[in-house]
Specification:
The protein has a three-stranded parallel beta sheet. Strands 4-5 form a two-stranded parallel sheet. Helix 4 crosses helix 8. The protein has helices at residues 16-32, 42-45, 52-69, 86-95, 100-104, 107-113, 122-125, 127-136, 150-167, 213-222, 241-253, 258-265, 270-296, 299-328; strands at 4-8, 36-40, 76-80, 142-144, 176-178. The chain has two domains: 4-184 and 299-328, 3-Layer(aba) Sandwich (Rossmann fold); 203-294, Orthogonal Bundle (Tyrosyl-Transfer RNA Synthetase). The two termini are 36 Å apart. It is mostly helical. The longest helix is centred in the C-terminal third of the chain and has 30 residues, at 299-328.
């Protein structure tokens, strides 16, 4: 496999959905592959206009979460997106190749802008072009993506092809999606039909990386369920999204299938199951929390890791951008 790139926005406290849906799987990729880049995509986060002090804190927290979860900075590049100016430069070049019709089809903009499209900022609208630049500036070959990002990866592939056709060179490979069989789609603890999200106004909708054991126990105890016992198969609970969500979290953390988890707890009530689930979450997440706290106590050391990752990423991106500028015809002075 060639090169893998992925990242998370530093827009709030990371939660167990980020861990099971992305970070844990990146660690597995790191164990099997080389040439991995994991970014804190702070330029994307700017579309939400976060408080500057919060942005700094959250960027360090995301970096600490990566490292505490097992991303090794000696094996993978870890860096803030804004540390590599080539992302933004390539985004402009690609934006000049992007028909408005392509962006108008992006469903995530419609979802995030909602009824206030006229007030939405240009950054949110052109977000997929910057995401394409993030991927292509490193000549990335594979991108771990969730369902909500597949359309953006398709745009990156389309733009790679458009660049190659416009300039008559097969410069960019078309990046492939890396679908991880073990990736879990974790839903809100308050609404099993909505994805767990940092932006949900209810803190009880998610388990944060930094939640202590008592908080985890409380949030799981308050998680929405129903009064029926656990069925012996997932299909028997298709109209019970909250029940399926909690069982899915258990299955992901225990590396079992939903079918196996249903058989294990068949007939049990959620008052009993929740205690087991809380223990499972604490066993997985509390060591990560403790390591994050240790890393965040020494921000200078953490910043040195990110500086090193940024320098390595810059070296790679700068060389590629130099070649791209020559292809486009920019005057070298």
């Amino acid at each position: 496999m060639g090169r893998i790139f992925s990242g998370i926005q530093p827009t709030g406290d990371l939660h167990i959905g980020n861990y099971l849906g992305a970070i844990r799987n990146w660690v597995k990729l790191q164990d099997a592959h080389e040439n991995l880049l994991f970014c804190m995509v702070d330029l994307h986060a700017l579309t939400t206009l976060p408080n500057p002090q919060n942005m700094t804190v959250w960027t360090r927290e995301v970096a600490a979460a990566y490292i505490a979860s097992g991303i090794n900075p000696e094996k993978s590049m870890i860096f803030p997106q804004s540390a590599v100016a080539a992302h933004s430069e390539l985004a402009w070049i690609l934006s000049c190749l992007t028909p408005l019709g392509w962006l108008n089809r992006m469903t995530q903009f419609k979802e995030k802008a909602g009824k206030h499209k006229e007030q939405a900022n240009l950054g949110l609208y052109s977000y997929p072009v910057l995401m394409a630049a993030d991927i292509l500036i490193y000549k990335t070959t594979h991108v771990p993506v969730g369902e909500d990002q597949k359309q953006h990866l398709e745009l990156a592939r389309d733009l790679a092809g458009a660049f190659n056709r416009q300039y008559g060179k097969d410069y960019f490979e078309l990046p492939e999606p890396f679908i991880l069989k073990t990736a879990a789609r974790v839903m809100s603890l308050r609404d099993g039909t909505a994805k767990m999200s940092k932006s949900d106004p209810s803190d009880y909708s998610r388990i944060h990386f930094m939640d202590d054991p008592d908080t985890i126990v409380l949030k799981i105890r308050k998680a929405k369920t129903d009064s029926d016992p656990i069925a012996g198969a997932p299909e028997a609970m298709e109209n019970r999204p909250e029940a399926l969500n909690l069982l899915g979290i258990y299955a992901a953390l225990s590396d079992t299938t939903m079918e196996e988890s249903c058989r294990t707890f068949e007939g049990a009530h959620f008052s009993t199951f929740k205690k087991t689930l809380a223990d499972q979450i604490i066993a997985a997440m509390d060591p990560i929390r403790q390591e994050m706290l240790a890393l965040l106590k020494d921000p200078a050391s953490l910043d040195r890791i990110l500086k090193k990752g940024g320098e390595e990423a810059n070296e790679l991106a700068s060389q590629n951008l130099k070649e791209i500028k020559e292809i486009v015809g920019f005057l070298r002075v």
